[in-house]
Design brief:
Keywords: Transferase. Belongs to the UDP-glycosyltransferase family. One of its GO terms (molecular function) is quercetin 7-O-glucosyltransferase activity. InterPro entries: UDP_glucos_trans. It is built from 17 helices and 13 strands. The protein is α/β, with parallel strands linked by helices. The protein has 2 domains: 250 residues, Rossmann fold (3-Layer(aba) Sandwich); 181 residues, Glycogen Phosphorylase B (Rossmann fold, 3-Layer(aba) Sandwich), CATH 3.40.50.2000. It has a 7-stranded parallel β-sheet, sandwiched between helices. A 6-stranded parallel β-sheet has the order 10-9-8-11-12-13, with helices on both faces. Helix 2 runs parallel beside helix 4, helix 5 packs across helix 6 and helix 5 crosses helix 7. It is globular, with a radius of gyration of 22 Å. The two termini are 26 Å apart.
Length: 463
């Protein structure tokens, strides 16, 4: 659906917006959704992208794509969180020189500089935003997480000064008084060693600098979901803030998937009872620690008796090339489950047969579940996922946090609680209320996200 309002079209060539996503599925999707939104408003689109995890240009024929060497093309996506953090720094440094060259060539082409309005870059790409500004191109930062998550970033020095971080085992359940509703265990962290702490400190400080030195800050969220956190963000960053989500409702992401979707699962869902199926997916990067976790998960699912649709990536178990279910699982779940390697998640969550979502709580998955009105079983793995789970369970009360070791009995009970109990029905009703709020945010020209889109378009045109 295309937003209404002013467009960038003029009697001459369209103004051009340059985009540069971080090369992970959860970052590429929102950036290309934003591209679709801006294209619908009349902007021409050029997508600069790392060669690693490159999007497929043939799926977006209206856009120009410019590959930028990143020093890691052809690498595996099955990387530990620490390696992912280090890879973000690698992308910044390795892409710097080739991006400078490619951007200069675009600007020096006939009419190039006059037509380019700005660069929208992932907030983790500070170096590349600096390159653009050095060449006279205004920049806007896109954060693909929540407003609440970004408050973790801005508060990180305080959290360290107050002794919350690096986190100590004995402090994990302590509340963070300055940043409710978080506990210490919900804060962004990748480990407790000095080296890991310094990596996270550097990552966060660079992202905050990228936002504060930009001409505007774009967030994939909406006011009714994060009212207080958006107010705090506007106070903290001192640049224009545009909450224009949920982006996937304006511009679906299916065409930007890096993995092949199995659409046969939608036909299988058609044959299931309403709200009966537990959908299980841990996104494109999150993984289980070992085969024991996979086995406990499988038997918890089997013993619950609940119909299920499970996205079982080959690399779901850390350090294993092919995730393998335990013997007897197929026989125990025959005729009430389906397993696929990847699914069209937005369509799955919107399907009437889906009554619950076991998720890693990445922000894209969280938003998609909110918009579908589906309650969640939360098993966060890293990054912002712990904080997202805290909001789902404690603030929105639209799901259950699955803490501690994965154990089949505990998982079976949690699935039954979510899918079969009165408490689960109350969570489903609260999830449906979130769905209504999301629909209102995008419903018409006077809704909050559409007004913010109008303001973003006008802001870009004024740069």
């Amino acid at each position: 659906m295309a937003p209404e309002g002013n467009t960038a079209s003029t009697s001459g060539p369209s103004r051009r917006v340059l985009l540069f996503p971080l090369p992970y599925q959860g970052h590429i999707n929102p950036m290309l959704q934003l591209a679709g939104l801006l294209s619908a408003r009349g902007f021409a689109i050029t997508v600069f992208h790392a060669v690693f995890n490159a999007p497929d240009p043939s799926r977006h024929p209206a856009y120009d794509f410019v590959p930028v060497p990143d020093g890691m093309s052809g690498g595996s996506t099955d990387m530990a969180v620490k390696v992912n953090v280090e890879h973000i720094f690698t992308v910044n440094s390795s892409c710097e020189a080739p991006f400078r060259e490619s951007l200069a060539a675009l600007l020096e082409a006939p009419g190039g500089r006059d037509n380019v309005a700005c660069l929208v870059a992932d907030a983790q790409l500070l170096t590349l935003m600096d390159v653009a500004r050095q060449q006279g191109v205004p920049t806007l930062a896109l954060r693909t997480g929540s407003a609440a998550c970004f408050r973790n970033f801005t508060a990180y020095p305080m959290l360290c000064h107050k002794g919350y971080l690096p986190a100590q085992e004995s402090q994990l359940d302590e509340p963070v008084a300055e940043l409710p509703p978080y506990r210490v265990r919900d804060l962004m962290a990748i480990g407790r060693s000095h080296q890991e702490h310094e990596l996270m400190r550097k990552l966060m400080s660079r992202a905050v600098e990228a936002v504060r030195t930009s001409s505007g800050f774009i967030l994939n969220t909406f006011d009714a979901l994060e009212t207080d956190d958006l107010m705090a963000t506007r106070r903290d960053v001192a640049v224009p803030v545009f909450d224009i989500g949920p982006l996937h409702k304006f511009s679906p992401a299916a065409s930007s998937s890096l993995l092949q979707q199995d659409r046969g699962c939608l036909e299988w869902l058609d044959a299931q009872a309403p709200a009966s199926v537990l959908y299980i997916s841990f996104g494109s990067l999150a993984s289980m620690r070992g085969a024991a976790d996979l086995a406990e998960s499988a038997w918890g699912i089997a013993n619950s008796g609940q119909p299920f649709l499970w996205v079982l990536r080959s690399d779901l178990v850390s350090g294993v090339t092919q995730a393998t279910l335990p013997d007897g699982f197929d026989a125990a779940t025959r005729d009430r489950g389906m397993i696929v390697s990847w699914a069209p998640q937005e369509e799955v969550l919107e399907h009437a047969a889906v009554g619950g979502f076991w998720t890693h709580c990445g922000w894209n998955s969280t938003l998609e579940s909110v918009c579908a009105g589906v309650p969640m079983l939360c098993r966060p793995c890293f990054g912002d996922q712990m904080g997202n789970a805290r909001y789902i369970d404690h603030v929105w009360r639209a799901g259950i946090a699955l803490d501690g070791e994965l154990e089949r009995g505990k998982l079976e009970a949690a699935i039954r609680r979510l899918m079969q109990s009165k408490e689960g029905q109350e969570m489903r009703e609260r999830a449906q209320e979130l769905r209504r709020k999301a629909a209102e945010a995008i419903s018409d020209a006077g809704s909050s996200s559409r007004l913010n889109i109008d303001q973003l378009v006008n802001h870009i045109l004024s740069l």
